[in-house]
Design brief:
Helix content is about 25%, strand content about 30%. The protein is an alpha+beta fold.
């Protein structure tokens, strides 16, 4: 196994660029994969096939037939399996070859030869455990609380940005940019344009928060690792946004490859009864467009930055959250590389 990873050049730098192993990631919105349908997708620099079994369960396989390496995604969906178009080899959702029509009784039958990732669906998205090796066992994934609370109503926003995945998470660990990049936003135009910050540790990550302002802008963010990386933040809502609790965002980012990221933002609000209906109506008819404007500002900024921009940075006190996250990820990448390379 160590020789394989050496051949792939899977050192700490490569792991950091394409995604930390042995943890859960958001893959795509659930509606990307229709019942009876298949979808090819790239994550962590690798191609994968998503398909639903006849009972609606999602499966995720490496998009490579175990016979000659042809893309399974070009084949046929057969209910509980897929059939490669090249030579008809059939593979089930566990990655096991179940039939070789061209040679019944072939030794390939019954062998688990295609990588299959554990998947589950949460909050309208497909999640997958990205294993570091065939021996990796899935860790428990603690759901972000806003996605499991029945009193919270949320909308999933999905986009793909031409920027490294670490940029997207670092952007969320930088609350001060809200007062500048988003100062024309309906929800981030209030508050001071200067602040002091602190890090507050938790048993699953940390808060990065302003010490001299709360409830006026993008004033705090919480980073958590509960089997997967996610952030939670709260942004005040003006009265024009309708009744209900504060507006929150749960964010996740998944590497497509070294320079592209699949970004997921669940916009949520704790509302019930008629307030829930009003909130959902207002979101779909007005607020969603406003939020896309904010996301576009982030996208344009991050895509315009050089991929090695951190090599020439001059950071200051507002960047403590970014520094903390970088140290955490670098340490994990180094430990995983050491374990994989032996």
């Amino acid at each position: 196994m160590a020789n394989y990873y050496k051949q792939q050049g899977l050192d700490a730098e490569r792991i950091l660029a394409t995604g930390l192993r042995d943890q859960w990631y958001a893959i795509c919105p659930s509606d990307f994969v229709e019942t009876g349908g298949m979808r090819r997708i790239t994550r962590w620099g690798q191609d994968w096939l998503l398909f639903r079994l006849s009972d609606g369960t999602v499966r995720m396989l490496a998009d490579r037939c175990p016979h000659r390496g042809a893309p399974l995604s070009q084949g046929m969906h057969l209910g509980d399996r897929v059939q490669c178009k090249y030579h008809g080899v059939q593979v089930d959702g566990s990655g096991t070859v179940v039939a070789v029509p061209g040679m019944p009784g072939c030794p390939l039958e019954g062998q688990e030869l295609v990588t299959s990732l554990p998947v589950r669906e949460i909050g309208g998205a497909v999640m997958a455990f990205f294993a570091g090796s065939r021996d990796s066992e899935p860790v428990e994934f603690g759901l972000p609380e806003p996605l499991e609370d029945p009193e919270i109503s949320s909308f999933l926003c999905y986009a793909e940005w031409d920027a490294p995945w670490r940029f997207t998470l670092e952007n969320l660990l930088d609350p001060m940019h809200g007062a500048y990049l988003h100062n024309d936003s309906h929800s981030m135009s209030e508050g001071e344009s200067s602040a002091r910050f602190r890090i507050r540790e938790t048993d699953r990550g940390f808060f990065f928060e302003k010490t001299d302002q709360i409830g006026k802008n993008f004033d705090w963010v919480e980073y958590s690792f509960t089997g997967g990386d996610w952030v939670n933040l709260s942004i005040p809502y003006p009265a024009s946004a309708g009744p209900g609790g504060v507006f929150g965002i749960v964010g996740m980012g998944t590497p497509i490859d070294e320079n592209r990221t699949a970004v997921f933002f669940w916009r949520y609000r704790k509302v019930e009864g008629w307030e829930r209906d009003v909130w959902r109506f207002l979101y779909r008819t007005k607020l969603e467009d406003d939020h896309w404007v904010v996301l576009e500002q982030d996208r344009v900024m991050l895509e315009g930055m050089a991929t090695d921009t951190d090599a020439a940075e001059n950071l200051y006190q507002h960047d403590l959250g970014i520094v903390r996250l970088r140290r955490l990820f670098k340490g994990k990448a180094q430990a995983q590389a050491k374990a994989l390379l032996g």
